[in-house]
């Protein structure tokens, strides 16, 4: 045999085998891609499993009087699995039969698209076998209830392919009310502010987990593979919604009417340190006012004449002067190491210390502080330290830039004019809350309380942590010094020459306090003429004889403000708010108000044994018209209760009972014994249910309960 032919034959055979192998590979690839492609893609997707977090329901924030200040409401995203077996069986017969009616229902309820547009959208997604198609985003609970009754959707998830993803949306029911104090809850918790930030770890709860399968470019939940989250705790604040509302209303009126830049009002309960209201409003570029910064806690400024209480207390406590000692105001102008200090009202000569205080003489307090502390500045600083004006306030809220700046002899900027200027409210930076704490301590007979905003942390109605009043300084000064300081503060309003008399004297109750008008530099351009603007303050307490509330009002005016003085601006706001508080909480009429009996009838359902235990413990007369059975309907009226057999609908096997008004335990017991699967959102009693009461249901059907 020819060797050459033999070699060529073998080469040709190899080439032929390679060609056949290539054709086979190409054919197989084509078959896998075109014929089996959908199967293998689905198989590949099913292997992409991942645990994704389920956010817990964030706790709510309440006022002390029980009003909700911040809460989470459920919103629903609606997805459709167009690859669901129940939707595609029998060639998609179920989908085709209900597409028209579903499109009509969607168009009628949401009114954002026509029925034809909805039908086209649904048919296209069905054709493309979308596995997690987003149909609606952020619908309300009412929309969700309506959605569940739409054609096709009401057949359940397996047959319709509809998936509802529940999540929370944070809202403030009172909108602006204490908005900066309550704070904001954002997706990135590091950007939260206020109580939402301070108590974020308690409010947010513990995140759960859900097993998700990646399919067709989106994650779909794997049913039954979930680790439930632990809902967040509720925060009960010290705020009073009535006082807060009045504070914001009066502050807004003054800011708008006087064209001021920003302002703050803080109301404190004298005996405890509870913050009953804190309003913060700043002017926006468009001329409106909003809660843009916590000026009361986070902004330290030169306080002006309200700081004279520090000087007065120090001098009285060291017994250098009494309120009847004489000081020469030298006509209202005096130079200290070449720098002039003058009074706003010139001409005063020799006055008592009390008269100098009620007239707010800058010269008098600069002279006395220089005379007694210039050679012993450490003693001056010791008083400031005891008054805690150089420390953070300790309030339970995160606020930026709230640290005070107090000079000491070791400070580089300390000089011969430091003490005289500090004595009447300059060369120190202090927040309004710091000054409020000092005035409150005087009102409280020398006891300085820690200001606080939270009464309790609550979990499902049970207080798991309670906060109590805390004393920071048992005695800031001697009893005699406190008594004389109180007398001086009252004279500011009561005396005809007092700076607060004209605005604050005409009340049905007594007010003690101090006005302050501090010159501040416009845009940090110095105190030259034309750059000056004024910060108006009034800090005080009422009623003077037995103080119940202490309040600070600090307002930064603008160059266009028609009023600039502390009494005219902040004093007016103080009086208007204190009038509201007095009428509601402190007047004899309000304290001696006759409470009429409550004759309203309250109707509830509950477990018979539980009801008997409750009524027995509360010593409430109760009659039970039935001898046996688990459940009772009862009516409570005029401090007595009558129990009877509930409606027949509650006990019929396939009829959905009306569980609104029930506690969660009883509602779940009743529904799940009937064969329904319960899903719960919220806390408290049931206020709504996804399946209408009185309608029939299928065993294993899911029912959503919304609690209040």
Description:
This protein has 23 helices and 31 strands. With 708 residues, it is α+β, with helices and mostly antiparallel strands. Among the domains are: 33 residues; 351 residues, DD-peptidase/beta-lactamase superfamily (Beta-lactamase, 3-Layer(aba) Sandwich); 106 residues, 2-Layer Sandwich (Trypsin Inhibitor V, Chain A). Strands 2, 3, 4, 5, 8, 19 and 20 form a 7-stranded mixed β-sheet that branches. A 6-stranded antiparallel β-sheet has the order 11-10-9-24-23-22, with helices on both faces. Strand 27 and strand 28 form a beta hairpin. Helix 3 runs antiparallel to helix 4, helix 10 runs antiparallel to helix 20 and helix 12 crosses helix 14. The longest helix has 32 residues. The termini are far apart. The mean pLDDT is 85.
List the helices and strands and how they pair.
Elements: H1 3-34, H2 37-46, E1 49-54, E2 61-62, E3 68-80, H3 85-110, H4 115-127, E4 133-139, H5 141-148, H6 157-160, E5 162-171, H7 179-182, H8 194-198, H9 200-203, E6 208-215, E7 218-227, E8 234-237, H10 241-258, E9 262-269, E10 275-283, E11 289-290, H11 295-298, H12 308-317, E12 326-328, E13 333-336, E14 339-342, E15 350-352, H13 353-358, H14 362-373, H15 377-386, E16 405-406, H16 418-423, E17 428-429, H17 432-443, E18 448-449, E19 454-459, E20 462-466, E21 471-473, H18 479-494, H19 501-504, E22 512-521, E23 532-542, E24 549-556, H20 566-586, H21 588-591, E25 602-607, H22 608-617, E26 621-624, E27 631-637, E28 640-644, H23 664-673, E29 677-681, E30 686-689, E31 702-707
Parallel strand pairs: 2-8, 26-28, 29-31
Antiparallel strand pairs: 1-6, 2-3, 3-4, 3-5, 6-7, 8-19, 9-10, 9-24, 10-11, 12-15, 13-14, 16-17, 18-21, 19-20, 22-23, 23-24, 25-27, 27-28, 30-31
Helix pairs in contact: 3-4, 10-20, 12-14, 12-18
């Amino acid at each position: 045999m020819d060797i050459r032919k033999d070699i060529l034959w073998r080469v040709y055979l190899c080439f032929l085998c390679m060609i056949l192998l290539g054709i086979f590979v190409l054919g197989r690839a084509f078959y896998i891609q075109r014929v089996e492609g959908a199967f293998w893609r689905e198989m590949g997707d099913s292997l992409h499993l991942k645990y994704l977090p389920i956010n817990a329901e964030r706790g709510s924030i309440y006022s002390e009087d029980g009003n909700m200040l911040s809460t989470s409401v459920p919103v629903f995203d609606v997805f459709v699995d167009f690859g669901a077996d129940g939707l595609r069986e029998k060639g998609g017969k179920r989908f085709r039969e209900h597409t028209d009616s579903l499109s009509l229902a969607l168009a009628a309820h949401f009114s954002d698209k026509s029925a034809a547009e909805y039908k086209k959208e649904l048919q296209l997604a069905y054709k493309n076998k979308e596995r997690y198609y987003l149909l609606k985003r952020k619908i309300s609970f009412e929309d969700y209830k309506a959605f569940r009754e739409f054609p096709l959707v009401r057949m359940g998830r397996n047959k319709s392919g509809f998936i509802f993803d529940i999540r929370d949306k944070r809202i403030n029911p009172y909108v602006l009310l204490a908005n900066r104090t309550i704070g904001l809850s954002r997706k990135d918790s590091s950007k939260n502010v206020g109580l939402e930030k301070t108590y974020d770890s308690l409010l947010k709860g513990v995140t759960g987990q859900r097993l998700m399968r990646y399919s067709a470019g989106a994650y779909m939940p794997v049913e039954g593979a979930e680790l439930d989250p632990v809902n967040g705790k509720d925060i009960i604040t010290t705020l009073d919604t009535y006082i807060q509302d009045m504070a914001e209303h009066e502050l807004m009126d003054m800011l708008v009417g006087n064209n001021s830049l920003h302002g703050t009002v803080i109301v404190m309960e004298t005996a405890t340190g509870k913050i009953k209201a804190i309003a913060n409003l700043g002017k926006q570029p468009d001329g409106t006012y909003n809660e843009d910064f916590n000026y009361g806690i986070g902004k330290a400024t030169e306080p002006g004449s309200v700081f004279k209480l520090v000087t007065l207390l120090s001098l009285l406590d060291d017994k250098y002067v009494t309120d009847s000692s004489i000081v020469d105001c030298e006509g209202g102008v005096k130079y200290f190491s070449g720098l002039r200090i003058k009074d706003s009202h010139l001409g005063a000569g020799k006055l008592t210390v009390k008269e100098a205080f009620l007239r707010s003489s800058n010269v008098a307090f600069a002279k006395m502080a220089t005379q007694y502390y210039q050679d012993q500045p450490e003693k001056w600083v010791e008083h400031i330290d005891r008054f805690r004006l150089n420390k953070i306030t300790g309030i339970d809220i995160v606020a930026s830039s709230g640290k005070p700046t107090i000079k000491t002899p070791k400070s580089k900027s300390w000089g011969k004019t430091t003490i005289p200027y500090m004595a009447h409210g300059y060369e120190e930076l202090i927040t309004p809350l710091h000054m409020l704490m000092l005035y409150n301590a005087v009102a409280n007979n020398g006891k300085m309380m820690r200001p606080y905003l939270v009464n309790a942390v609550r979990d499902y109605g049970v207080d798991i942590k309670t906060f109590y009043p805390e004393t920071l300084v048992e005695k800031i000064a001697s009893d005699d010094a406190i008594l004389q300081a109180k007398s001086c503060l009252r004279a500011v309003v009561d005396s005809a020459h007092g700076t607060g008399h004209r605005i604050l004297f005409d009340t049905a109750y007594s007010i003690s306090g101090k006005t302050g008008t501090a010159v501040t530099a416009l845009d940090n351009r110095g105190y030259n003429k034309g750059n000056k603007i004024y910060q108006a303050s009034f800090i005080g307490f009422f009623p003077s004889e037995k103080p119940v509330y202490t309040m600070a009002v600090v307002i930064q005016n603008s160059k266009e403000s028609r009023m600039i003085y502390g009494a005219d601006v902040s004093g007016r706001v103080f009086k208007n708010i204190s009038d509201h508080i007095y009428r509601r909480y402190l007047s004899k009429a309000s304290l001696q108000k006759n409470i009429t009996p409550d004759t309203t009838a309250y109707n509830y359902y509950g477990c018979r044994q539980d009801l008997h235990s409750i009524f027995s413990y509360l010593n409430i007369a109760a009659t039970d018209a039935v001898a046996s059975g688990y459940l009772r309907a009862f009516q409570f009226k005029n401090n007595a209760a009558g129990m009877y057999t509930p409606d027949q609908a509650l006990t019929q096997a396939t009829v959905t009972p009306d569980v609104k008004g029930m506690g969660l335990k009883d509602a779940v017991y009743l529904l799940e014994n009937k064969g329904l699967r319960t899903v719960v959102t919220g806390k408290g009693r049931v206020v709504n249910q996804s399946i209408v009461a009185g309608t029939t249901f299928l065993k294993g059907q899911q029912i959503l309960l919304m609690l209040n």
